[in-house]
Amino acid sequence: MSSTIHLRARGLKQTYDLAGSHLHVLTGVDLDVAKGEVLFLRGASGAGKSTLLYILAGLEHPREGTVEFEEKQLFALKGDRQAVLRNQHMGFVFQSYFLLPELTALENVLLPAMIGGRQSKGNDSKARELLDRVGLSGRLDHLPSQLSGGEQQRVAIARALINDPSILFADEPTGNLDATTGAGIIDILLGLAREDGRTFVAVTHDPALAALGDRQLYLKDGHLV
Q1: Contacts of 137 (CB under 8 A, 6+ apart)
Q2: Strand-strand pairing, 21-34 and 72-73
Q3: Integer angstrom CA distances of residue 204 from 12, 17, 167
Q4: Are the C-beta atoms of residues 171 and 94 closer than 8 Å to each other?
Q5: Model pTM greater than 0.85?
Q6: What is the pLDDT of residue 102?
Q7: Class of the domain covering 5-219
Q8: What stretches of the chain show up as alpha helix (H) in DSSP?
């Protein structure tokens, strides 16, 4: 793990207006993530873990605060430039897979490359290689409906890596899986992150899972402890 700061957050605050009342989810979060670090964010249900992750990734805008990613101020970028940065430098794995049902496993993996304008034979080979790395070389032409939950999540992992991102974000990646399948998914995620030297930031409620990282932080009362 490098000592270079890959992701830096300062003074993050987030408030939601609900039926005339204010729900203060983040009340001042400061965070540095080193390049190549495996970091887990923990906290009680509703503590704001996913909100924090989405802000760090630029998927949600905070009420206050800044996020610096690879020396770029994330929220100072125009919408299209921010989207391009996410597409080219960030990978995402969510609890609910988000595979397109009409696309095969191979086509789902290729989707971020196609969105980024990187349609080439090289991407097809890379997608096949990634599916092989997650143990799905025999499922290339299967639709999501023909795959188990664990297999769908492995497709989602391969999709997250197709553009060779420097950082991988995961939001409760085992939340919809049984314990045995979930453990296998985590082995794959951590193995791929560490093998390729990627920064990995994940939300989890599982203390045993969080203990596998380089560091774990707990979100309580709107800030990290």
Answers
A1: 128, 131
A2: unpaired
A3: 20, 26, 17
A4: yes
A5: yes
A6: 98
A7: alpha beta
A8: 49-56, 79-89, 105-115, 121-133, 149-161, 179-196, 207-210
Unique residue bearing structure tokens 């097809």: 124
CB atoms near residue 137 (< 10 Å): 11
Encoded amino acid at 115, one letter: I
Answer for the pair 65, 12: CB distance below 8 angstroms, yes or no. Answer: yes
Q: In what order do the strands lie in the sheet with 215-220?
A: 90-93, 167-171, 199-203, 38-43, 215-220, 223-224
Q: Which helix (H) or strand (E) holds 7?
A: strand 5-18
pLDDT value of position 20: 80
Torsion sign (Cα): 40, 44, 50, 52: negative
CB 39 within 8 A of CB 213: yes
Q: Are the beta carbons of 178 and 102 closer than 8 angstroms?
A: no
| Pairing relationship of beta strands 90-93 and 167-171 according to DSSP bridges | parallel
pLDDT digits (tens, 9 = 90+) for 88-109: 999 999 999 999 999 999 999 9
